[in-house]
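Encode chain A's predicted structure.
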Amino acid sequence: MSSVIPQGHVILGRIGAAHGLRGEVRIEVRTDDPSRLAAGAVVVTDDPLVGELTVVRLREASGRATIAFEQVTDRTDAEAMRGLLILGQEQQEEDAWYPQDLAGLAARGEDGRDLGTVLEVRAMPAHDVLVLREPSGARTLVPFVLAVVPVVDVAGGFVVLVPPGGLLADEPLEDEDDEADAADAISHHDEERDA
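Encoded structure for chain A:
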């Protein structure tokens, strides 16, 4: 079974085990917009031999989702589809982007300083992270949350980062700066007293 994701498509879900005798299958939903898998939706899979599928229904019960397609009517066909990715057309919105759009973007601080380049977006259990190559070459995982990445400008070719102290290898710890300032102040005070 070949695995091909056509240009202009995104992953909406992955088909799991057959459920029941009439072609229904379990599905791992991978879209933030489950309405894209609602009854009547037409999707494809990463196997071009399967062709288009029309969703009959998407149900969720006890934390598990199942889906039924018009073209899959028995358990044998359902079992043959296990592991396939369900794909839909990209839907570009004004403020939306896809993970692949972020690879190669420049990372800047709020003050405009160069913080590196985004290599990829990686899915993690708690939240996605940006894999950042800093100017020194260090690779750092940056939480892809609004507090740390408040601006994503794909058209402009950059993201803005507000990293907490110590997150980036090229940035000094906030405490280290404070300690250095305190040491300078003490040293200066001692010099004045000795004079």
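Residues 176-183, 185-195 have pLDDT under 50 and may be disordered.
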